[in-house]
From TrEMBL:
The chain crosses the membrane at residues 21-40. It comes from the Bacteria. The keyword Transmembrane applies. Residues 93-105 have a biased composition (Low complexity). The keyword Transmembrane helix applies. This is Uncharacterized protein. Keywords: Membrane, Transmembrane, Transmembrane helix. Residues 93-126 are annotated as: Disordered.
Length: 408
């Protein structure tokens, strides 16, 4: 065989035509394969930024059908094209900012609309300086006709928990707001929730989410129908912390300095090594009110379940949970809750993989793992309760006919 000397070009003219064609075909095939790997849609979890770490933890421990994750921020919203599942806690994430549905190769992701056709039931228009309505509320109902008229309407036969999904959206876990009290104390009545009376109604007025939660309960005119006047929302939010129905009495406190001792001495009631200082609802936070709930007499606290799951097993064992008291003429109720949901993004050639992922998401043990990671409860009726308080929350969820959360 003739050797090619250094510096001499490869003699392509001596290569047989068939071999040339084979080399060119192999190069084209290789380039095409690389391009296919880059451009062909791969099943992906598109996860809202605040849930990414928890979702990664769940995937590592529960053998998922695929593991590719892409995070997105609430400001930009989920991607408009791709294939996989969107994992989000915002009821508004099923549509883009313009109101158009997210485009997919097999139609579009259905948007969650209430029976009036308005996305998420947003109410209020003037809002604050940023343009956000004070009383923006997003609502999920199942089915669309669940909300019956108060006068003569029959109670709905179905609940959100019965189906496990709302249209194309899968409900995975939720963090419901409930009224917490000690086992030995009586429940909160609607009359006591609306006016001063016996017992201590605790409000962490320094927590914006707690103020809004109370306002939404008081401004719910009918099940799922909230006051639309933005000024009413604003006034209610401003006046709630100083309202006489909430605990505004003395709080036992230990002074940490001479200055604090002299300040507390201005309210001169000394009890043992502690001094009674004034407690104002607007100056309190979750840790203040949870502590009071555990050591006060008759008292109630409206809070999300996740706040209570931070307590020790002993402290949680002292408490029970119930839904916020409805007006006596109502024949159904909804549950305020943060929600984790999965929205499909179909893609060409990925139908089978997405179906496998859907089956995986709907398994009760997977939803239990998700809920435990978030300190929430699973949406699946057969999901396991973390403790008796979580079971109380599940019972409330199973009986609810709609959910709502604060608009973002």
């Amino acid at each position: 065989m003739e050797k090619i000397s250094d510096g001499e070009k490869f003699p392509w003219n001596r290569v047989p035509r068939l071999l040339k064609a084979a080399i060119i075909a192999a190069a084209v095939f290789l380039a095409g394969g690389i391009l296919w790997l880059i451009l062909w849609p791969r099943p992906t979890w598109y996860v809202e930024e605040r849930f990414v770490m928890d979702w990664e933890f769940v995937l590592k421990r529960n053998d998922p059908p695929f593991t590719r994750i892409r995070a997105y921020t609430p400001e930009k919203g989920p991607p408009r094209r791709g294939t996989g599942w969107i994992i989000t806690g915002d009821l508004g994430d099923s549509v883009g900012d313009s109101g158009d549905s997210i485009g997919t190769s097999e139609g579009s992701v259905r948007d969650l609309r209430d029976s009036s056709g308005d996305l998420g039931g947003n109410v209020g228009t003037s809002g604050d300086a940023s343009g956000k309505a004070w009383g923006a509320v997003r609502i999920m109902r199942f089915p669309d006709e669940t909300l019956s008229e108060v006068s003569g309407g029959d109670s709905p036969d179905s609940t959100l928990a019965d189906a496990g999904e709302n249209r194309d959206t899968l409900l995975l876990a939720l963090d419901p707001w409930l009224v917490f009290r000690k086992h030995s104390h009586q429940g909160l009545s609607r009359n006591r929730a609306e006016a001063a009376g016996e017992g201590s109604l605790l409000l962490p007025g320094g927590e914006d989410e707690a103020l809004w939660a109370w306002a939404s309960q008081l401004l719910q005119e009918r099940p799922g129908i909230f006051t639309e006047e933005d000024e009413t929302w604003k006034r209610t939010l401003e006046e709630l912390p100083g309202d006489s129905r909430f605990w505004q009495e003395a709080l036992l406190a230990t002074p940490n300095s001479v200055g604090e001792f002299l300040e507390l001495l201005a309210t001169p009631t000394i009890v043992g090594p502690t001094i009674v200082g004034k407690f104002l609802a607007q100056e309190s936070y979750w840790f203040d009110t949870v502590d009071l709930l555990l050591r006060q007499g008759l008292s109630w606290l409206y809070a999300p379940l996740s706040r209570m799951r931070e307590l020790s097993s002993y402290d949680m064992g002292l408490l029970t949970a119930e839904t916020f008291p409805c007006r006596p003429e109502w024949n159904e109720y909804g549950l305020q809750a943060e929600i984790l949901q999965a929205i499909p993004m179909p893609g060409k050639g990925q139908t089978e993989k997405l179906a496998v992922a859907k089956a995986w998401l709907l398994r009760p043990e997977i939803q239990t793992a998700i809920a435990d990671q978030l300190k929430w409860i699973p949406a699946h009726p057969q999901g396991e309760a973390y403790n008796p308080i979580s079971r109380d929350a599940q019972l409330a969820w199973f009986s609810s006919s709609f959910l709502w959360q604060r608009g973002r």
